[in-house]
Every structure is written in structure tokens, then in C-alpha cells.
């Protein structure tokens, strides 16, 4: 009798655990960091053609230059560039739509934090730049910094 209960419990455990573990496995949905960066840059480039006012377009251009420099630059001088990028994003946040402001404010604080630390890894910087491109593209596709 106990042998039959153990067999039943084992079979039940196997039947339950197989779908649980296979459902958690990646199904080809994951992308490399470089793929994520490239797609966010492309989206930003398309959306940037519809920039709002001249002032916003100028700040966006400066921000894009800073982001490209952050991607190409090593650790030297990165902290100052992080602070400058945070200040540019803070300027853009003032005109951003209400739904974009919290995300942009979070980005500003992350740039300042990484600038304060002083030696952020290249993967951290790449991910942060990619998120920045995505949020800026989202804003340009909707309210275009016209608030």
C-alpha cells in the first residue's frame, strides 16, 4: 500500500513539474544587448524626424550626441558626461507628456547615480542608453515634447 502511494505521488510530481519547468524556459524571445540597442536606436531615428519645437530638437540633438559618446567612450571622463546627459534629460522632462515623466525622471536619477559612481561597466551604460532611446522615441511618437 505505501509503495502504491509513493508511486502515485512521484507520478503526480512529475506530471506537475514538467509543464512548470518547460513553461519557464526561454522560447527564443531573448535578444542580445546589442540587438536591443540597435532596435531602440532605429526606433528613435524614425521618431526623431518628427521632433517638436526648435528648442526641443536642439536638446534632443545634444542628448543624442551624448548618448553616442557614452557608447563609444571608455571609463575616462564618463562621469562628467553622465551628469551632462542627466541635465539634458531633465530639460526634456519638463516638456514631456505626463506618462513619460516618471520614466524620464528615473533615467535622470540613474545617469546621476552612475556618474557619481564614476566607473560604470559598458553593459550598464549600453542598457541605460538603450532605455533612453526607447523612452525618447516613445515620447516623440506621442506628445513630441509639446507640453
- CATH class, named Mainly Alpha
Unreliable spans = none
Individual helix count:
6
* DSSP strand count: 0
* Integer tally of domains: 1
Q: If classified by CATH, what would the architecture be?
A: Up-down Bundle
The biggest beta sheet reads: none
Task: State mean pLDDT (0 to 100 scale).
Answer: 85
Derived structural class: mainly alpha
Distance between the termini: 74 Å
Backbone shape: elongated
Short précis:
The chain has 147 residues and is mostly helical.
Describe this structure in words.
The protein is mainly α. The chain has a single domain (33-141), classed as Four Helix Bundle (Hemerythrin (Met), subunit A) (Up-down Bundle), CATH 1.20.120. 76% of the residues lie in helices and 0% in strands. The protein is built from six helices and no strands. Helix 2 runs parallel beside helix 6 (122-141) and helix 3 packs antiparallel against helix 4 (78-95). The chain is elongated. The model has no long low-confidence stretch (mean pLDDT 85).
